[in-house]
Amino acid sequence: MKAKSAVFRSLLAAALVVGLVPFEPAFAQSGGCALTRQAGGRQLLRCPGGVTVTAEAGAAFRLTDRNGDGSPDSVSLRSKAILVDVDNDQHQGGFQVVTPQAIAAVRGTQWAVDVASGTTSVLVRRGRVAVRRPAGASVILAPGEGVDVQPGAEPLVVRRWPAARVTALLARLGQ
Fold first, then answer.
1. What percent of the chain has pLDDT over 70?
2. Which of 8, 46, 125, 132 is 20 to 30 A from 155 in CA distance terms?
């Protein structure tokens, strides 16, 4: 019996790591967010305070309300992509996405964050986003700009993303 239980826990942990099991997706709904399933397995979370998160199918993420005001102010993203839309007129305070490689923080904007193969990619659609490694200087992204963050200490390089790359990422998010 103990061996079966250990195997099950190992399989569940492996599925969580590779994104087969979403990383606490129901947390957002219990936190006051309305969850809608979309075509292709995507999830749309509409939260109090003007925060909307669209998650790619299988994305491993968790919303957090650090200040306890009923509106999420942070997303921890482990794998795959999310699109975050923060309405500055409704949301009080900053909002950030934390990944293993980067922290992307904004107020009143829309941006996509993708975590894959040890790299965090951030693309801004509207507004401005500050992106940095957990330890290091930040860069500011404007609409149409992106950055790829990998472990290390090299300076982050902001680039205007080619239309094909933007289209491919946003298609994964139903945009």
1. 79
2. 125
Q: How confident is the model at residue 70 (pLDDT cuts 50, 70, 90)?
A: confident
Alpha-carbon distance 169 to 6, whole Å?
37
pLDDT given at position 87: 84
Report the candidate in 169, 175, 142 with the shortest Cα–Cα distance to residue 158.
142
DSSP element (H, E) containing 163? helix 163-172
Buried (b) or exposed (e) across 18-33, using 16+ Cβ within 10 A? Answer: ebebbbebebbeebeb
Q: How far apart are CA 52 and CA 47, in angstroms?
A: 6
pLDDT at residue 16, rounded to an integer: 37
Q: What share of the chain is helix, strand, coil (3-state, %, to 5)?
A: 20, 40, 40
Q: What are the beta bridge partners of residue 54?
A: 44, 83
> Which pair of structure tokens corresponds to residue 106?
């904004």
**What's the angle, vertex CA 171, arms to CA 17 and CA 73, rounded to 5?**
60
**Partner residues linked to 45 by β-bridges:** 35, 53
Q: Report whether 160 contacts 145 (CB < 8 A).
A: yes
Please say whether the beta carbons of 11 and 4 come within 8 A.
no
pLDDT surpasses 50 at 150:
yes
